[in-house]
Structure prediction request, 162 residues.
Amino acid sequence: MLTTLAIVHVDGDWQVVEGVLSKDMATLGEYIETWKLKLCTTKSVSAVFHLSNEAKGELTVNHNNITLPFSSEPKYLGVTLDRSLTYRRHPKSLRNRLISCVALLRRLAEYGWGAGATTLRIATLALVHTTAEYFAPLWCRSTALLYSVAALLYDVALKPPH
Prediction:
């Protein structure tokens, strides 16, 4: 069973944040050990979200004497986050995923494969629309992000091949 977890602490002092998060990771480590679970250290990262342009430090959070890597743009549930939570990086990663989905659909639509209109419609709904609509409730509130997602949908999915 795969579980996604975020541990959050808000404070103005970075050392306090590091201490609290390291303590929380120790508590999590005890829980993991008790229930014979394993933490995926390759996907576990520390990150900082703030609006200050001057604060450019990195957190040092430890788990079992291992320092978790710091990520300035972590991915959480498939969404790329930035330090001020504006979600401006997400459309770029969304575009890359849509490009691969549309490339697959274009291969299906080639004459040799013989995929019919119904098959292409179902494949488009399954691949392109679900990928584009994931996380839409948040990015659709921003006009700039909505425009960039709509533009990338046009660029990737609606333009005819050259």
Summary: The CA atoms of residues 22 and 62 lie 5 Å apart. The longest strand covers residues 62-63.
